[in-house]
TrEMBL record:
E.C. number: 2.3.1.9
UniProt-recorded Gene Ontology molecular function terms: acetyl-CoA C-acetyltransferase activity
Domain Thiolase N-terminal intervals: 5-252
Record-annotated Thiolase C-terminal domain positions: 261-382
UniProt enzyme class: transferase
PROSITE patterns the record matches: THIOLASE_2
CDD domains: thiolase (cd00751)
Leader sequence segment: none
Classification via InterPro entries: Thiolase, Thiolase-like, Thiolase_C, Thiolase_CS, Thiolase_N
Protein name: Acetyl-CoA C-acetyltransferase
Domain of life, source organism: Bacteria
The keyword Transmembrane appears for this protein: no
Cell wall biogenesis/degradation is among the record's keywords: no
Length: 383
């Protein structure tokens, strides 16, 4: 099978809820990273064969195939198509998978993968409200088949995160220590200039807006839990955010014909499902399966990105995999840096690639929990 190479990866700085990027149209957010991607590669955009973007809640400014809209808003060639996909929080990681698979199958030579989300403009429940206008209370309770299989159990990421904390006996204090470390690592990465190469500043925002320099264990301890008697607080969850990200994937032929310099090779791609009620546990079996398929061990990776949807998700994954915490989210995670849903998968891949280059690592693994109880795993090898 042909190889798929990552040639370039770029993201916007991430804006916090109602922050500097909140008024930027989603198409313009996506257009910004697409222009930056093309400029950094020096590639003729007319040679791109498809644009695959992740996005959730595709209503309002995110409706109408936002991948296509972003490309056109960037002023790029009209003959290049675009498609928008939804694998919940893993949408743009799946976009990377589809792009790599197109290259590896030999059907495409140059594909852009990425994602965009403006959660300030389109809150996470916006699609549910639109559905309610057409007579659907939510995607689950109105399904006879779903009720027959799963009953009336609540389907919520918050419920799932609490289930994980209790099942793995993860205390609030453990989670608060992880959250504090996330902010500290993110602030250190910003102050050290680690994100400068991977970000394309906008007029509205030049640096990630989420990390809190003044947070502390004492401040976190003062917060009320998200549910009565629960262990989770807002400080232990990913931030509502706005942003976009994009990568260029190329075949060996495209690398040769366009004079490109590949920076990483896609070593492995897989996705796995788990319990949709616990919802956020799938990175555990997905990682186990990826290691089995590749014959690799968790200690083989020089850097790992697992999305900090909630602190309990990461801590349960660490307990099950035995991964070295020092290698996990070394630049901070979504608790500090934010989680612009449809853009996060490609954002994490961008950070993973740059971290491997900065530290001289070889292999990197990325995984993240996704709605419906799913998880993608991507393994890349720095070249």
């Amino acid at each position: 099978m042909a190889e798929a190479f990552i040639v370039e990866a770029v993201r916007t700085p991430v804006g916090r809820k109602k922050g500097a990027l909140s008024s930027v149209h989603p198409a313009d957010l996506g257009a910004h990273v697409l222009r930056a991607l093309v400029q950094r590669c020096g590639i003729d955009p007319a040679a791109v064969e498809d644009v695959i973007f992740g996005c959730l809640d595709t209503v309002g400014g995110q409706a109408g195939d936002i991948a296509r809209t972003c490309w056109l808003a960037a002023g790029l060639p009209e003959h290049v198509p675009g498609v928008t996909i939804d694998r919940q929080c893993g949408s743009s990681q799946q976009a990377v998978h589809f792009a790599a698979q197109a290259v590896m199958s030999g059907t495409c030579d140059l594909v852009v993968a990425g994602g965009v989300q403006n959660m300030s403009q389109i809150p996470i429940a916006a699609a549910f409200r639109v559905g309610a206008e057409y007579g659907f209370a939510d995607p689950f309770s109105s399904s006879t088949g779903w009720r027959q299989r799963y009953g009336e159990q609540p389907v919520s990421q918050f419920h799932g995160a609490e289930m994980i904390a209790r099942q793995w006996d993860i205390s609030r204090e453990e989670m608060e220590h992880l959250a504090l470390a996330s902010h500290q690592k993110a602030v250190h990465a910003i102050d050290s200039g680690w994100f400068e190469k991977e970000t394309a500043p906008l007029t509205e925002l030049a640096v990630d807006e989420g990390p809190r320099r003044d947070t502390s264990l004492e401040k976190m301890a003062s917060l009320e839990p998200l549910a009565p008697g629960g262990r989770l607080t807002a400080a232990l969850a990913s931030q509502i955010s706005d942003g976009a990200s994009a990568l260029l994937l190329a075949s060996e032929r495209a690398v040769r014909d366009h004079g490109l310099t590949p920076r990483a090779r896609v070593h492995h791609l897989s996705v796995r499902g788990g319990d949709p009620i616990a919802m956020l546990t799938a990175p555990i079996p997905a990682t186990e399966r990826a290691l089995a398929k590749t014959g690799m061990a968790i200690g083989d990776f020089d850097a790992i990105e697992i999305n900090e949807a909630f602190a309990s998700v990461v801590l349960a994954w660490l307990k099950e995999t035995g991964a070295d915490p020092a290698k996990v989210n070394p630049c901070g995670g979504a608790i500090a840096l934010g989680h612009p849903l449809g853009a996060t998968g490609a954002k994490l891949m961008t950070t993973l690639l740059h971290q491997l280059e900065r530290a001289g690592g070889r292999f990197g693994l990325q995984t993240m929990c996704e709605g419906g109880g799913q998880a993608n795993v991507t393994i890349i090898e720095r070249l």
